[in-house]
Write the structure tokens for this entry.
Amino acid sequence: SQTIHQWPATLVQPVGSPLSLECTVEGTSNPNLYWYRQAAGRGLQLLFYSVGIGQISSEVPQNLSASRPQDRQFILSSKKLLLSDSGFYLCAWSQGYNSPLHFGNGTRLTVT
Amino acid sequence: EDKVVQSPLSLVVHEGDTVTLNCSYEVTNFRSLLWYKQEKKAPTFLFMLTSSGIEKKSGRLSSILDKKELFSILNITATQTGDSAVYLCAVVRDDKIIFGKGTRLHILP
């Protein structure tokens, strides 16, 4: 069966520090991969999505970036965190538009 | 611009009541609509809807899609305190998946 791993579960970082969040999927190949951010327990904001290795679509460029160095690995990065980057970051995968989205457990990021 | 709008944003009812949550959308290249339940962690999948007029049902929860009027509803009958959560609607357009802001449902005992 398929599983998605996302780490770390919680993270406290100072303003101006770098960020790297990693997500890997097991048990499937060529998944679509997604990064979402959720603030204040409400709707999910789509940050990036990828349909293949090296293919990244950006919805919210700002100071975040994403990379997909391997088929089942998706990384969210920042060179310098802002206070407004605090939130709940969720990685997710799907097998295309006829299948549902499956989420990792999320990372709670607090920028101080 | 793609839009997914959920209403109401917040709802408080008593245990045993029936609730209806709404999701309307405006997207190009619509593929499907997804419903999720979120408690204090990652969202869990409830339903995927692709065809109009076909009700999906799971226990006390049911959902239906109207592709002509561009909306979906999620019904919960005989609510229980364990139904308290944020309910999220998402629309799939090609490979992009867009979420609404969610409906926060609180069930009073």
Observations:
- Residues 3-108 of chain B form a domain with the Immunoglobulin-like fold (CATH 2.60.40.10).
- Chain B touches chain A through 25 residues (CB under 8 Å).
